[in-house]
Amino acid sequence: MASNNDSLVLDIGSRSQTNLLSNKLPTILEDSFLLEQLEKLALKVNLSDAAFSNTKDTIATTKTNTQTGCKDKYNDYISKLDDSIKGYEQVLKQTQVVNDQLSVSIRQFNDISKDSEKFIEFTNSLFQDYTQTSQLTEMIPKYLQYFEPLDTIMRRLNYASSSNIVRRDSFKNLLSNVEASLIFLEEHKDFKEGDSYRIRFKQCLIRSSELIAHYLNNNLLKNVSTEITDRLKTVNINDPLSIGTRDALVYNKFASISEIFYQQLVEITKNIKNTKLKRYHDELSSILNDCLNNYFSIRQNLMEPIITARLEEIENSEKDNDIVTFIQNSRLYFQQVCLDEYRLFIKFFPIKICRQSFDNRILRFCSPLYYKCDNKILRETDISLLCNSVTLFSHYFEFEENSDEYLKQFNEVKFDQVFGPILQKLQQRLILRVQQYIDNNIANYKPTIDSFMISNRKNQLSGSKDFDFENDSIIKSFLENSNADNYLNFLQSNNVENVTLESTENDNLLESEETQKQNKDEKLKFITSYYPPLVKASLLLSKIYSMMNSIVFDDLAHHIVHYCIISLKNAYTIVQNSSNIAGSNSLDMDLAYMKNLLLLRTQVEHFNIEYIVPETYLDFSAIESFFTYLRKGAKSSNSGTSVLKLARELVPKVVNNMVDARHELIQELRNIIKNFTEVATEDIVGNCFEILEAENSKNLVTKNIKVRTNVEEKLPRIRSQILNFIRDQEIVGHLIVAIQEVIVQSYENFYENVTEKVEANLIDKTQISELMYPDVFADLTENVCNKLLSKSIDCV
């Protein structure tokens, strides 16, 4: 700004002294441009020449006066301007001085600012050091309190003369210091020699916990156990009057130390629950397990004589040595014992930590029961008793483990785990006995003509050689069942027998002797109306259903149905080969076969047997062939190659088959239905559809009338014959319709054959007009069948 002002003032000054003084300013009228503009303006306002002349003179006069006044003013202006230039120059000099001083001040201020920042940084560092030092000074006493008591604690623990020290308040303070020090060291792992101190404090923790455990085991449990044992020696366990005294000793007296025991044990368990001391949980859990083992060992020693005496009492009280009664009474007794032990246990140990230990150790507590039950189960051969025994434990396995219902049911003792070993033994024994029963009564059953032709013995109620009513536990249990509800449901589900039985609504109500006899007679009719292996198989499946794992049951059921089909086919073949059977007898045989297959089908559907099961066995046929070869006189002097070849051939082969009882059963049903419809059709039609070479019109008409008569007469008789074996109206209707379709198809073939012979001039054309058209014959048979199907199955 100063330089610009200086240049402007100097420029004005220089111009005023040179140009303006030497050259005069032009007047207004001397300006040609201005004069030209004035002339134009005069023309526009139409001024006259005179006016213009006057104006010109006036202007000239004014010009002269103006020039003189402007010069004076200009000179004054120049003079003032020079004075201002001098003032401005002085101001610029002063401003420059101030500017220089301000620049120096700014540089000094920047230096001061830098010095201030360095000072602040330095003071902050000093403050932080001071703060840390102050905090460390304050924390050193607090930190030292976790280390200073170590020597005193170790000395006191190492030289503890008695475990009774754990009952003192000073010991609890000591243990609290140890725990606090270990937690502190876990949180401050960067301390120098921290691991060394941690190990020493850990030794103090373990040592103090061992002192507590020693006090609990030797001073409390052992003393009270010895006292109770001594007093029990004076009590007669077998005396009913002493039961109250005995229970008071083994439970009430034992529970008298529970409060002290629990308070001391909490000092161990609280460290096991502390997540900050997780590193020491294994050692502490081992000490706790020693206490648990010692507790259960003492409890088992106290209760074992009582339990053994009670089991012997239960066993001796059985008149018939019934396994069901023994297991039921034993189960009830041990259920109460386990509940008492649980309620006693929670007074000594915190259940949240020790629950799993109790569940595991209570199984050892029940070992006398397992031993007694194992002996009885291994000697038991009655399938019904084994099933009844399994039923005693069914309500323990109604819900899935860890479900809400399961936790509510077993909120105290998990009885499914307590009685699980017994149930497993029972099921294993049951499976073994079922397999033997299948082999003896189904797979290896030797059928006879009488055993299959059930129509000959349908009204027999007892005395059949095929049924051992006294020794067969399955049949005996079925006949002696006073409550007929299950049996009635079983028959209704089969839809093969129209049987009604009276039954009571309450299982505990006794039926009258007359009703029992009537029910037994109905059951005997049912038994004797079927092929014996099928009856036994059906009753067996009904008995073992839901008694074992579903996979095992499906496997057994597949093989049972498979063996039943094989046995039934063998019996059917024996009857077929025994004599020439034709007509109604052949129909009876097919219907009997069909009836038994329908019973099997009902079992397959009722028990949902629909999965294929593998069957693996060893094939020893090569060995049998080898001995046959030797018997035929083969020499033993063979070459080495032949011996090796023979050895390879003698190795038993593993054969893997798939047993699909459902498919096999359906196939057999299709075959027998096809065979039945063919035999029934042949019985109705006879030789009416045979066309002889010398056939005349009279014979054809006679055969035609005979076929119609046979349909109207024999088809109802066949229906009645079917109802003697099958009472399911739907199945009866299907059989009648199948027979109708075969008869109609046979007649259509007959009519077509006659037509071909007429066209070939083998038969007179007039003869075909006497025959019924196939449609007419089909309507006839359909009307007959509709009348039969509309009748109730009771209308025979």
Automatic annotation (TrEMBL):
- Database matches in InterPro entries: COG3_C, COG3_N, COG_su3
- Give the top-rank taxon of the lineage listed in the UniProt record for this protein: Eukaryota
Its annotated compartments are:
Golgi apparatus membrane
**Ranges of residues in domain Conserved oligomeric Golgi complex subunit 3 C-terminal:** 247-623
Give a GO biological-process term: retrograde transport, vesicle recycling within Golgi
Recorded hits in Pfam families, A to Z, give:
COG3_C, COG3_N
Q: Name one GO cellular component term.
A: Golgi transport complex
Membrane topology according to the record: Peripheral membrane protein
Q: Which residues cross the membrane?
A: none
Q: What GO molecular function annotations does the UniProt record carry, in alphabetical order?
A: cargo adaptor activity
Q: Residues in domain Conserved oligomeric Golgi complex subunit 3 N-terminal? A: 77-220
What are the UniProt keywords, alphabetically? Answer: Golgi apparatus, Membrane, Protein transport, Transport
Q: Which family does it belong to?
A: Belongs to the COG3 family.
Q: What is this protein called?
A: Conserved oligomeric Golgi complex subunit 3
Q: Which organism is it from?
A: Tetrapisispora phaffii (strain ATCC 24235 / CBS 4417 / NBRC 1672 / NRRL Y-8282 / UCD 70-5) (Yeast)
Q: What is the lineage of its organism?
A: Eukaryota, Fungi, Dikarya, Ascomycota, Saccharomycotina
Which gene does this sequence derive from?
A: TPHA0A02050
